[in-house]
Amino acid sequence: MDRQTAETRHLSRTDPVMKRLIRDIGPYRLRPRARRSPFESLVRAIAYQQLHEKAAESILRRFVALCPARRFPQPDDVLAMDEQAIRAVGFSQAKVKALRDLAAKTLDGTVPAGAIIRTLDDEAIIERLIAVRGIGRWTVEMLLIFQLGRPDVLPVDDFGVRNGFRMAYGRRSIPMPKDVRRYGERWRPYRTAAAWYLWRTADRSKKP
Fold it and tell me: CA-to-CA distance for 82 and 138, rounded, in angstroms?
């Protein structure tokens, strides 16, 4: 039984609404970006905070251009950069401080390297990474899902997940995170796939 079949089969068996979403939306197609380091993934997450995708990508392109080799900056590169130069590419002062703290905590091992982070369980990763300035639980959950491909992550604070839940389950208002968490217990151990289907549900509502 392959991984996708196991996920969709379990969700269909335990939840008739998920069964309908899977039928309507189609196969589960999450593809983690496993080649990125935790440091790079978190830099990108900081860039995206409170910004539109195009604006964040433009900032990241200018940020990469600060390195002579035009490669993605490494922790020691960030610490060596002039703070005003980082500000000039579009990062706010708060984000500059977050980037420098992320770089320092990567070098001291608080933020694990890729080979190490894959040996840790989800909560251990969350506990370590939220020690970084500007990194909260939601940001780490995105890393768990989209970089590490962890199968049982339910980001209940995510608006898209909660809005998709509202639509799929016919709720009149956006549910509280605790309500989504409680209902989502039936989706274990494949809550990531459930979140993916809720995101797709919310996305479909945006299309004309």
Answer: 29
Domain containing residue 79: CATH number: 1.10.340.30
**What's the pTM value of the predicted model, to 2 decimals?**
0.87
Residues 120 and 181 grouped into a single domain: no
CB of 105 closer than 8 Å to CB of 111: yes
* H helix intervals, the chain: 3-14, 16-25, 38-48, 53-65, 75-80, 83-88, 93-107, 114-117, 122-129, 137-146, 159-168, 177-183, 191-204
User: Catalytic: which of 2, 82, 158, 203?
Assistant: 158
Q: Note if 158 is an active site residue.
A: yes
State whether 76 and 100 are in the same domain. yes
Range of 10's domain?
3-30+153-204
Calpha distance 114→59 (Å, rounded): 24
The tens-digit pLDDT sequence of the chain (208 residues) is: 344 579 999 999 999 999 999 999 999 999 888 788 999 999 999 998 888 889 999 999 999 999 887 789 999 999 999 999 999 999 999 999 999 999 999 999 999 998 999 999 999 999 999 999 999 999 999 999 999 999 999 999 999 999 999 999 999 999 999 999 999 999 999 999 999 999 999 988 766 5
